[in-house]
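User: Predict the structure for this protein chain, please.
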Amino acid sequence: VLRLFLNQVDKHREFIENAREYIKTVFTGPRGNCEHCHNDKDGVCKFRKSYTLENRLIEKCNGIVFEFFEPDTSKLKEYMALFTEFFPGRR
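Assistant: Here is the predicted structure, written as structure tokens:
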């Protein structure tokens, strides 16, 4: 499993919406969807990631998101592009 810790997803909307399906699905698919368990904890949730993709508000639980299963070298170029999109280095 390749697990990335990504923030400010909305800033990268265009990249993600145009990414290959195996990358986009990590952001838009059902895995890690927020179950609003904070409702059982006095409404406090420190770990939810909220962003909009494809005109849809998405809320994910920070503890189990952005995991890419079965990564292999044939997908390395796309994974590196994603990483560089979020972490472009110093300008």
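The chain has one domain: 2-86.
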